[in-house]
Amino acid sequence: MNILYDERVDGVLPDVDKAALLQALRARLPDLEILHQQEELRPYECDGLSAYRTTALLVVLPRHLDEVQGILRVCHERHVPVVARGAGTGLSGGALPLEKGVLLVMARFNNILHIDPAARTARVQPGVRNLAISQTVAPFGLYYAPDPSSQIACSIGGNVAENAGGVHCLKYGLTVHNLLKIDILTVEGEYLTLGSEALDSPGFDLLALFTGSEGMLGVITEVTVKLLPKPQTAKVLLAAFDSVEKAGRAVGDIIAAGIIPGGLEMMDNLALRAAEDFIHAGYPVDAEAILLCELDGVEADVHDDCDRVRQVLEQAGATEVRQARDEAERVRFWAGRKNAFPAVGRLSPDYYCMDGTIPRRELPGVLRAIAALSDEYGLRVANVFHAGDGNMHPLILFDANQPGELDRAETLGGKILELCVKVGGSITGEHGVGREKINQMCAQFNSDELTVFHAVKAAFDPGGLLNPGKNIPTLHRCAEFGAMHVHLGQLPFPDLERF
């Protein structure tokens, strides 16, 4: 599987005079904000998907917005590709640099600019950590709802770029549902504001268009998010099952009963054993699968919902249903789930985290199919995912030092994503497409749909300089991948006005 940029099918990138580019950037930035030596570039050669690495031509770490604007203008004038990077925690290779490009690191823009408790909004720079927002507004009884597992480290700019979710997105939505406004810089260095603090603003919803665009349309410079009041109470039920299929059916039964949990997570035996050894959360390690169901809101409503969910779980075949006895146990239950990824990392030298979504009704069948694929490719798969909205995170365990195992893991991952599409789902729920899933985009979308995506890209970035080779495949790549027939070769971008 060809993951790294391939000019043959991804588009030819212009050759860059590194010395001349370095000189132009030094006219706008202090030397300490420009990295160009090989040993300086190495820490930035990958994001959270560490199996794929490329060394950037240059890395820049600006401190001020006028410097970001200057970088973009220099690169635009010289036709140099730019890849924006936040905290580098992404799991799809979205911030993978280019050998002929500049890596623009926005991590130093990490200030919370304004909190408005009355309006329940926060205005922050893109490098602010997700969790830092909730920590800062906690004294006002507020919090920021999207909570990816990496929330202690991931940045809000990266969350917007990938439309990140988290364990509570079933009830409270993804990043796009918790945004009011963003400020961006275009590839030409022009400032734009997308969205509004007003509840309804006229015109096309460019904020929603930009959210999840993976750095292909502009560089985020400021984000205004919605804040929510902390619920009066939150209770967690843990249910154990003797088969993953029963656990999968129970998920649909809960939603069908008219109950919308704050979070509804599933872990299979391999994942829950790893998490229990790592965190000691109190999980039943003899279960084939567990569900964690959190209910939050007003005390009386939560009490009634807990009783209803317990009844549904027991009818679905749960062998054990346990409610967290106190807040400390509730936190332990969630700590096990949020640390499942690093816990699984103790089982194998490497793992490959997938991110597909499926209709909830398809969970039992898809889990059976994943088990069959695991046997076929001879690689263990641990299932940890947001069951409530069908967002699956199969973790494929492999050893990159063993010849052929990485290739098998990639192929197995692709098969799982294609399975998601086949049953009416999507190849990504919250991690983004990046470089990792570029080929599977050819399976999910036809040539007409991809051409529309390219037209949107061309409206914002006519030269294709922002994060090229990510998210949207060329039709040539899809033809090479074998997912579609392309007539008359590469289609040109339409000649469009910017908006």
Automatic annotation (TrEMBL):
Transmembrane segments: none
Domain FAD-binding PCMH-type: 52-230
Pfam families, alphabetized: FAD-oxidase_C, FAD_binding_4
GO cellular component: glycolate oxidase complex
One example GO MF annotation: FAD binding
Listed InterPro entries: FAD-bd_oxidored_4_C, FAD-bd_PCMH, FAD-bd_PCMH-like_sf, FAD-bd_PCMH_sub1, FAD-bd_PCMH_sub2, FAD-linked_Oxase-like_C, FAD-linked_OxidoTrans_Type4, GlcD
PROSITE patterns for this protein: FAD_PCMH
SUPFAM superfamilies in alphabetical order: FAD-binding/transporter-associated domain-like, FAD-linked oxidases, C-terminal domain
Keyword vocabulary terms for this entry: FAD, Flavoprotein, Oxidoreductase
Cofactor(s) named in the record: FAD
Protein name: Glycolate oxidase subunit GlcD
Species this protein is from: Pseudomonas arsenicoxydans
Lineage of origin: Bacteria, Pseudomonadati, Pseudomonadota, Gammaproteobacteria, Pseudomonadales
